[in-house]
């Protein structure tokens, strides 16, 4: 059985980050080891949430695993709270990476043309350094623009996206994938670039006019799980895009749908059926 380490915060209530990564990747057949960077009562769309930073636990946990001879087939990072945490994770990469370890970075920090309130450009620069250590990165357009110094556009064409991917490639990752890319009216999806082959991959599926917290985490976690099942990155991205869209549609049909996330728990059997 493949083993993956996923490093991100855990919101006790909220259908995001580790509460998505752990069940989704596990359901796809991989042992899923977690390293929480912070524990929150809820995700940050709630009011008056509590948050406990766990930076002081990262090194002791990693050191214990190292002493036990623990290894990982993949390491997948999501939301990291501070510049110093990113430095800790870079150190962890160096400690656990070998020739068979795939590192996937989702540099969660911005959307819709804006940084999240807690972050600044120093954090962006540090995230770009983390992406340089990765085999695969999956930023959205806003995050990619920030890390590459590219002007953000709400309207764009394929040439703009390919130029952005080229600049992302310069950061150093083997595969760069942009999420939330709409190249046709009524459609959205992903566009990727592979450094070794110089090839682009474009996948567009139906666009759903609804936005839910945690869908980026659902996409990335599904990608990781599918790659650990043996899928190449293109097929993993395609399945993840279709599954995320399907889950949003199922959630919209629920008369008692939660406002704070998608009903991915109800669609996990559908994900398994896609394989």
Summarize the structure.
The protein is of the alpha/beta class and 275 residues long. The protein is built from 9 helices and 11 strands.
Describe the SSE topology.
Layout: E1 3-13, H1 18-27, E2 31-42, E3 51-53, H2 55-67, E4 74-77, H3 83-96, E5 102-105, E6 110-111, E7 114-115, H4 121-132, E8 136-137, H5 141-148, H6 158-169, E9 175-181, E10 187-194, E11 199-206, H7 215-228, H8 233-253, H9 264-273
Parallel strand pairs: 1-2, 1-4, 4-5, 5-8, 8-9
Antiparallel strand pairs: 2-3, 6-7, 9-10, 10-11
Helix pairs in contact: 1-7, 1-9, 2-3, 3-4, 4-5, 5-6, 7-8, 8-9
Overview of the structural elements:
This protein has 275 residues and is of the alpha/beta class. The chain has a single domain, classed as Ribokinase (UDP-N-acetylmuramoyl-L-alanine:D-glutamate ligase), CATH 3.40.1190.20. Helix content is 41%, strand content 23%. It contains nine helices and eleven strands. The strands form two sheets. Strands 3-2-1-4-5-8-9-10-11 form a nine-stranded mixed β-sheet, with helices on both faces. Helix 4 crosses helix 5 and helix 5 packs across helix 6. 43% of the residues are buried.
